[in-house]
Amino acid sequence: MTEAGIAEERPGIDPDLFVRRTDDGLARLDLVVAGMHCAGCLRKVEGALKGLEGVDYARANLSTKRVAVRWDPARLKARAILRALADTGFTAVPFDPKLLGTLDQRESRSLLKALGVAGFAAANVMLVSVSVWSGLVTDMDETTRSFFHWVSALIALPAIAYAGQPFFRSALKALRAKTMNMDVPIALAVILATAMSLVQTMVNARHVYFDASVTLLFFLLIGRYLDVQARTKACSAAENLLGLRATAATLIAPDGAHRSIAVESLEPGMKVLVVSGARIPADGEVVTGTSDVDTSLVTGESVPEQVKPGTSVFAGTLNLGAPLIIRVTKRDDESLLAEIVRLMETAEQGRARYVRIADRAARIYSPSVHIMAAATLVLWFALGAHWETALTYAISVLIITCPCALGLAVPVVQVVATGRLLRQGVLVKAADGLERLAQADTIVFDKTGTLTLGRPRLVNGEEMSAGELALGAGLAAASRHPLAIALAAHGGVSPRPILDEVREEPGMGMEAKLNGKTVRLGNADFACGTQGAAHGGSELWLWQEGERPVCFRFEDTPRPDARETIAALKARGFDIELLSGDREPAVRRLAEELGIRKWRAGARPADKIARLEELESEGRKIAMIGDGLNDAPALRAAHVSISPADAADVSQTAADFIFQGTQLAPVVEAVDVARKSRRLVFENFGLALAYNAIAVPLAVAGYVTPLVAAIAMSSSSITVTLNSLRLNLANRAGLARKTP
Predict the structure, then answer these.
(1) Edge-to-edge strand order for the sheet containing 305-307?
(2) Does the annotation count 446 as an active-site position?
(3) What is the pLDDT of residues 92-130, one digit of tens each?
């Protein structure tokens, strides 16, 4: 789809309707800009927006053609942003995932039609050219040769006019805006080659270049079409996530009537019906019904979760069982899915160090293209070459010096990597998080909620009688304390006694009457008036009047694969440490169980930061993995940080990565993908620089024709993009087992 096509798609649309407010009072707008094809286009779009007074942030994503803008609404209006892009030669509209899909399809169809016309013309012009080439060494007279040249012109000129539109239109808009993009040298090269051939035909010269002009367009269109297809496959993970949204919801009106409305129209308090097999349209709470819901989007777990009245559910999750009636609690743009999308966009649209290097290199190339072509023309004239020879060499330089491959070296890898990790349950928040994780050589873990699930389990149940377990579970069932919940879940099969006058003493424990006698469950002082024997874990004491007290001991449950994950990280060359605020015996036992030699107990937040600074002074690059409020300062201080999805909000805000589910394996996956991404980035830089180092001197020296230049330029961009997509082709199981 062309820029005009986008404008036709949404005529007269008011961009203010799509503006959102951020927590700090700024306005935010996401746009689709279809005319971005290279790093130069991206730079111009960002430059035009950052030059506006009041713009705080502007970031373009070349792979998804999406632009995010933040500005002060008191100093700037949304329409001014669209006008600024139009003045630069780019037409933009507010982002709509449906529009983006339509845009990709129409652009592909348009390029495919142009490719077909160019291919048909190239084949026929080439047949005529073969006849002319044969006649040059036989007895073909000038009249016959002139006839064949005019036949070539009649075939090539209409084909070039039609098939060259994607390049001509883009170049014209750039020139009207008094800017340059990489379609300008391409369009100039095609026009010069065609005009030179037409002049040669008029004067009945021996050589014309219609075959080169139309074949040049043919190969350029092949490259552009394959590039669009490859970028579609490397589409933003955020856009893929938006496909998980329900498009409509069945609203239950106050009078009980059902009607279908768009999910964007849902408001908190509305009730919706979700039938079996349908996606939940909005964040909400189950009002009626019991069912199984596929929550893998949120938890990363493949096992469905049972929901019932009072259970919170999230937009994008799938109802697998019976129908549910849900009360909406959040608007569509405030849902958990929308928040994940925004976090993904932040990561994808950010600028890591490698991206900034590539941008600077591409910026240097753009003005150099025309200077180099002009210098080539002058040089060959000075050396005595014929004007058509010198012009042909200059045309080749115009084509071959496009820095598209260099501009794509990093962004495509970044988009593919974040998408792959999201599918594995890891959310990448920081733009340069992958880059920093690949540099890490030391991992520091928190204990509770990180290496463990934060769920206590009874460890001495086999020492208790069935009656003691049943009594303790009966008392615990009336409390929501974590230890009480764990004891109630471990109550065994014996029937629980009937208790009277059950009451809870906040912060102390439970008290009740059993057959007229007092029973207590709680800490040692409350339950039995004596200090319980310390064993390094949490405990509850059960006391019955006239009976000896009994101690229930608890320990936190390690994550199911914690030991295997620690071993896998060690195999990848990491030094592992455990810093915990818990008591020494509990920390020691967990460290021994998981095979961690370096550990420290009783560590306060300041102690954790001090240890990180100590490691950094030794030249270490630290990855901190933690979940609690007390871990947030250390997460922020570390070189790179990771937090589980059920961590405190402040910890998730400080972390660069968030992993889902009860498994630690996503941490290993993140490390492997980060390291593989770094290798691919360096490979892409090498491919792009090698192409330019070889191709440009050859073109200046006259060894590259316009046809060969077109093939080389398109191949370099496609090679870099396909090399980046190797990250998705790697065998995940093999990668997880691979050691560095």
Answers:
(1) 305-307, 291-294, 318-319
(2) yes
(3) 877 765 555 566 677 778 888 999 999 899 888 888 877
